[in-house]
Design brief:
The chain is an alpha/beta fold. The protein has 3 domains: 59 residues, Roll (2,3-Dihydroxybiphenyl 1,2-Dioxygenase, domain 1), CATH 3.10.180.10; 79 residues, no CATH class; 50 residues. The chain is built from 4 helices and 9 strands. A 4-stranded mixed β-sheet has the order 1-4-3-2, with helices on one face. The protein is elongated, with a radius of gyration of 20 Å. The model has no long low-confidence stretch (mean pLDDT 83).
């Protein structure tokens, strides 16, 4: 077998009833408008990309037979759920409270298919990666979910290709490394002159899901 060919997920089609209304909404989110192309009166396609995302959305006229609002469970991965939620609210978006799932508790019927219906108010108490959420919808009811991920499960990312999609994500990773390094120095009882190496090892391990240095 030869080397595997990369297959990078590029586009998600969002069914909308009014392209101009959807364009206004996704522009308001601060997403980048990549294209707005029309061919006569029967076809129009718009493409938007969320900040730091390698995948885009398209919508428009006659780009999908799906019912407007039927796209659900669309995940947006963020490194800080509270900051992401606050930013969306600042743009006038109606975002749910931060929630997590725990046991058999039920906390509301809104978009129950997004991470199940067992919703508990507030972020995950242990601030575990993958465990805190918030949700919102576009004007047609297409459902989006913010999910906070600060470290990946093993095998989800190649440590040799560790990267950050934005300056904000890198800054957040540096803050987590700084906090962990402070605990490291407290345990050893001395300042670490090799802290850049320690930071690098910690940040690579965090992204790849490997055991971080102590």
């Amino acid at each position: 077998m030869g080397n595997k060919i990369d297959m990078k997920f590029e586009i998600v089609v969002i069914p909308v009833s009014n392209a101009d209304r959807a364009k206004e909404f996704y522009s308001k989110l601060g997403w980048r408008l990549d294209a707005d192309f029309a061919s006569g009166n029967d076809y129009r396609v718009l493409q938007f990309t969320p900040p730091g995302s390698g995948c885009s959305i398209i919508f428009g006229k006659n780009v999908t037979p799906a019912t407007p609002g039927s796209a659900q469970g669309l995940y947006l991965i963020v490194s800080d759920i509270a900051a992401a939620r606050a930013e969306l609210i600042s743009h006038g978006v109606n975002v749910s409270e931060v929630f997590h799932s725990e046991g058999d508790q039920y906390s509301g019927p809104d978009q129950p298919f997004l991470f199940g219906s067992r919703r508990v108010s507030g972020p995950d108490p242990a601030h575990g990666s993958y465990r805190s959420f918030a949700s919102f919808s576009d004007p047609d009811g297409n459902g989006w979910l913010l999910q906070e991920i600060t470290s990946r499960l093993p095998g989800r990312i190649d440590s040799a290709t560790t990267s950050f999609s934005s300056a904000g994500d890198l800054a957040a990773a540096l803050r987590r490394a700084a906090a962990a390094h402070g605990q490291h120095e407290a345990r050893t009882g001395q300042a670490d002159p090799n802290w850049p190496d320690w930071y690098a090892e910690y940040m690579v391990a965090e992204q790849s899901g490997a055991e971080p240095p102590k």
